[in-house]
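[INFO] parsing input record for NADH dehydrogenase [ubiquinone] 1 beta subcomplex subunit 11, mitochondrial
[DEBUG] input buffer:
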Amino acid sequence: GKKRRGGNSVGKMAAAAVGRALRALRVRTMAGRDAGPLGGKRGSWGWGGGGAPRHPISRQNPDYHGFSADPDADVLNMRAVFFAGVSVAIVLGTVFLHYLPDYGLQQWARREAELRIRERESRGLPLLDPNYYDPARLTLPPPE
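[DEBUG] output buffer:
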């Protein structure tokens, strides 16, 4: 049959991305019980003696991020960890900032002002009194 061109390019890109991710996540096992956690023999990269490292991963993969010896899995895991870390930081940071207590008591001051205004209106008093303190209770110096 004929090959279709165009079509659902988003579906093709998603399928290709899933295929790459599955290939990167494929577990590669080594024969033998002396395999170290990074896939090499114990002692070849500082696991259990053996002297200086013979083949550091940073020489094999110059873009090594510290997640896996396989370059594809390393990049995939690095992106997943950073995506999850940034997402958690943004979400938890936003929640933390939202639930902080009333900074500078601004909300409390607004509520208190509204209560005082309602109280003064119900008593028939002006909202602002020209004398903050009662002048009868103030002791002023004698006029000169």
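[INFO] DSSP finds four helices and no strands in the chain.
[INFO] shutting down worker
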